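Here is one chain, start to finish.
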Amino acid sequence: MAEQILEINRENYDHYNEDKYIYKAKPGLSKEIVEEISKQKNEPEWMLNKRLKAFEIFQKLPMPSWGPSLNDLDLNNIIFFHRPDAKRNATDWNEVPEDIKKTFERLGIPEAERTALGGAGAQYESDVVYHNLKKEWEDKGVIFLDCDEALQKHPELVKKYFMTSCVSPTLHKFAALHAAVWSGGTFIYVPPYVKVSMPLQAYFRMNAQKGGQFEHTLIIVDKNAEVQYIEGCSAPQYNVNSLHAGCVEIHVLEGARARYSSIENWSKNTYNLNTKRALVQKDGVIEWINGNMGSKVTMLYPTSVLIGENAKSDFIGVAFAGKGQNQDTGTKVYHLAKNTTSVVKSKSISKDGGITTYRGLLHIKNGASNCKSNVNCDALMMDNISKSNTVPYMDVKEKEVDLGHEATVGKISDEQVFYLMSRGLSKETATQMIVSGFIEPVVKALPLEYAVELNRLIELEMEGSLG
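Its structure:
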């Protein structure tokens, strides 16, 4: 697997297929399209009502007036629902249409499933075209489906957790949009005391021009259970804008542990406006590992709500912004109970005029004593025309807490480059080694195959950056 990823090239991501759809909505959003999505999925009435209520909220809420500009995002040009001409939820890759299967083979998904995963899902446009869980975990009661299928097979479980206590459609305009038009995604339920030792993975691929993708990820880790989940995302490069507005909800119950890893490599014409949130009960642990290097604009702030005593959140992320890119990322942590802990490590790299911003919120509720939090933000700029911003906000209502915040911004050291070059390395190789060392904490947190991929993606972005 590692050798295959090392040979990765941009064609693996920028390749696109000829359009073949069984349904393709007209650009723009209307009540009729929302109703059509629900009708084609044969959803229960309560889900249709939830969609329609969210559509009303979406219409009333304003566009975000802070952060990167969204002026070039014209929602009237986005196609909100398009279903490929492919069987849904195939459990054999040979049942997937050849052109779509080849796309996922280029991305290494079938091989990763064979060698390193406990289960895998693959979404293409608005439909999940492949989904499978190894029998070992199925026999232990683990549920791993796409969200559409979960709604049919486990409606009460979905109704209890879907956009209720974790992410509300009223949170912001794009959360409401997502609730109205969501399609596909991932549903995971891990029973009490079951520890899934192999990662589960889903890969989300947009192919169409002016496309929108709105997958929903819902993860429930029951008492003292554990799971690792990895998401990958990509889209080909077009001359028109696309939109990704997915949603991730993670429920970490008492004593449970969840690790969520994501490598997002959307194309440079995609607006990535994603919402990710976790509710963590007593003694629970949530780990976020994020790599963001694609997209024209990213606004993404994975959020941990620590509602039980001794709950813990670990966040580690890296953002890369090149020419024409604005990566506005960070994390939010709400300490709502005593003895809760959070650790934040954020890395960013900017070059060729790219803009990176760490935007974070730390809230400690009055009465949430003995909380501990440490925030560390490091930014690396490759030139004098790029930008890096740090926008931390701390809202502390309790005196008995232990807090730390550190931020650094710097350029690659000429002395380090000179030293490596004096040992026989080229300037480009020396620079790549320094960058690899800079992002090492993120890489170390990923499984081997994905660590290699993240390193290689950064190398591809760095190519030619030294003039």
